[in-house]
Amino acid sequence: MKLGIIGLAKSGKTTVFNALTRGSASTTASGLTDPNIGIAKVPDTRLNVLVEIFNPKKITQAEVYYIDVPATPEGLGQDHGISGKYLNELQTTDALVLVVRAFENPSVPHVSTNVDPSRDLDTLLIELNLSDVVILERRLSKLDAETKGANTAERTRIGKEHKFLESIRQNLGQGIAIKDQNINQADLAQLSVFQLLTAKPLLVLINIGEEQLVDAQQLENELNNQIERSGISCIAMCARLEEELTSMDEEEEKTFRESLGAGESAYGKVIQSSYELLGLVSFLTVGPDEVRAWTISDNTGAAQAAGKIHSDIERGFIRAETVSYHDLVTSGSMTDAKRKGLVRSEGRTYLVKDGDVINFLFNV
């Protein structure tokens, strides 16, 4: 899973990046031209339990890649859209994290006249729409050029694509994101080649101050009510506090959170929300060498899930020996789970479920 982080200048988005990746990227560097890139390990307590059963040489968690785009790419917040290499970076992501500022700090003045997360979210959504409009206008201009000298069949094809893209562009111009337009799956597949930003799921992070922790749920509800769209979720987090807590050990962090009423770690909460937003689940593989979590889309077939491990396993797929995590742990061992008849033999079209523990049999 790859997530791109964007936000207006002085929104605290690089602090968010550090909190989510346990990183130490500079939050004061000026003239930064390259994005920050970091990796977060996906928390999964099931792995710890399986390690106790199988005592493997290695434990491997699933990973999330975060790309923190510089806060002042050309045009961001100025109704110009996102362009250039920053756009190219964001187009490769699975979802976007939009950081909006809710904290007050006189020493870090807001780029606008006052702090208003609702307004800043609207600004960012407009930037995403404008970026997509520019991409489609570029394609429409190319189609116009191709029309010259085209034969009848080619003109028909070009005309059909032009009409379709023009309707999408007009809707974007009215502020309607790709995911909010009534587009069928075939047409969405056609649009996928453009990697449009408003087609991506969005996670809005409301960056609050410590004094706002008690109001976190209310702020989330207010923005969720403002959006009222599918494919967007809101989470409030105090990025500065979360960044500071990353330097503490687990027990010290727990005690400090309780004293502040800070609730659960935003680290795990953001990852969980990202999984839900993207419709992702994890299956598990176990053995004396390694216990590992693998991330796949929900309703993925067994053969395709096997390909997540290696293309040869998918190509030579025979069957998937499958047991649920709960049944395996309750049984205490794979041997006992098999003895109780809890290990199933599934075919290539079996839809893998979250928490399935699978051994793939294959022949190449």
Can you give a write-up of this model?
The protein folds into three domains: 2-115 and 200-277, P-loop containing nucleotide triphosphate hydrolases (Rossmann fold), CATH 3.40.50.300; 128-198, Orthogonal Bundle (DNA polymerase, domain 1), CATH 1.10.150; 299-362, Ubiquitin-like (UB roll) (Roll). It is flat and about 70 Å long. The chain has helices spanning 13-21, 45-54, 84-91, 117-147, 152-173, 185-191, 216-227, 239-245, 250-260, 266-278, 302-309, 311-315, 325-331, 334-339, and strands at residues 2-7, 36-41, 58-60, 63-68, 95-101, 202-207, 232-237, 280-285, 290-297, 317-324, 344-346, 356-362. The model has no long low-confidence stretch (mean pLDDT 89). It is 43% helix and 20% strand. By secondary structure, it is α/β, with parallel strands linked by helices. A six-stranded mixed β-sheet has the order 2-4-1-5-6-7, with helices on both faces. The longest helix is centred in the middle third of the chain and has 31 residues, at 117-147. It has 14 helices and twelve strands. Helix 7 links the parallel strand 6 and strand 7 (232-237). Helix 1 runs parallel beside helix 8 and helix 4 runs antiparallel to helix 5.
